[in-house]
Write a structure and sequence with these properties.
alpha/beta, three-stranded antiparallel sheet, about 35% helix, binds adenosine monophosphate
């Protein structure tokens, strides 16, 4: 007798996601699916759109965690400073819908600015001391904007699990802390940074880079890897680790370094000596006007 190969339809299926432009439509759809099945968990991936393989990896991870996968696409004005790139941030919703659907999104939430940032918004989330260092120091108010909008999105989507990338390590640490400190009923899942073949961390902002800047940009990760190698060889002094990464970036790029900092992952506050299992070395650098970030965890 011939054995039948049983192939799950799910394995090769591209889901056609439903697009929700307002919070009511999303809420109705999600509450009807919650009513239909108590076990219908929701995984959520918040993004600012212009999706790349890094985002797609988060969405695929979300699809492994729950049958319903909500992806939000919202360029959050609260997390941009007055002289930052909010207006020119790249946007391509048609492509985002395709990429998200292929990765397994069932619903795409594209909120109107008025839904998430009404002019009367008065109450915001203070992310506390975790936001004082690294990107928070050079982008005052950035993490308040992130935490406020992520909390609003959590309240609208009410996910069981939310997926974030380690590419934005400080953001992930702050969101985890917010969830714990404010008793928000959601699990936070972290996904490792997805990179181009030459090591550059994928980012929606990479499209801004000139060909020359694009050639130099992998030096950020290379510098961090050199600091990581020094750490692995026993060096625990934050200043020396930072100097190693900084030197490599300075020697190999024309970038203006915003910061290179080695800190305990648990506090993100400056410390002289670092410990294995609790170390983050993070860097931000401007290539022209394009600010890129990257990090290693040790
Ligand atoms: P963004 O659209 O830049 O706000 O990013 C949305 C989510 O995707 C955040 O959780 C990011 O950390 C994550 N992400 C962005 N780029 C990458 C990447 N290269 N690898 C992994 N996650 C990423």
């Amino acid at each position: 007798m011939t054995a039948l190969a049983i192939v799950s339809v799910h394995d090769c299926e591209t889901v056609n996601p439903t697009i929700h432009r307002d919070a009511n439509s999303l809420r109705e759809r999600l509450s009807s699916s919650r009513d239909a099945s108590d076990s219908s968990e929701i995984a959520f991936v918040p993004t600012m759109g212009y999706l790349h393989e890094g985002h797609a990896t988060l969405i695929r991870r979300a699809a492994e965690l729950a049958p319903r996968v909500v992806v939000s696409v919202f360029v959050n004005p609260l997390q941009f400073g007055p002289n930052e790139d909010f207006d020119r941030y790249p946007r391509d919703l048609d492509r985002d819908v395709r990429v998200a659907g292929e990765a397994g999104a069932t619903d795409i939430f594209v909120p109107a600015a008025a839904d998430l940032t009404p002019s009367g918004l008065r109450v915001t989330v203070d992310p506390g001391p975790l936001a004082d260092s690294l990107c928070g120091r050079s982008r005052p108010g950035h993490f308040r904007g992130v935490a406020t909008i992520v909390l609003k999105l959590f309240n609208l989507v009410r996910p069981d699990v939310a997926v974030f990338g380690w590419k934005d390590a400080q953001q992930l640490v702050i969101i985890r802390r917010m969830v714990e400190d404010l008793n928000i009923p959601v699990r936070i899942e972290g996904v490792e940074t997805i990179r181009e073949p030459d090591g550059l961390a994928m980012s929606s902002r990479n499209v801004y880079l000139s060909p020359e800047e694009r050639c130099q940009a992998p030096a950020i990760q290379q510098g961090l890897q050199r600091a990581a190698a020094l750490f692995q060889s026993g060096e625990r002094c934050a200043e020396r680790l930072e100097a190693e990464a900084r030197h490599h970036i300075e020697q190999n790029t024309a970038a203006r370094i915003d910061y290179v900092q080695a800190v305990p992952l648990s506090t993100l506050q400056p410390a002289e000596k670092l410990q294995p299992g609790n170390t983050l070395i993070a860097a931000a650098a401007f290539f022209g006007t394009t600010r890129l970030i990257d990090n290693v965890r040790l």
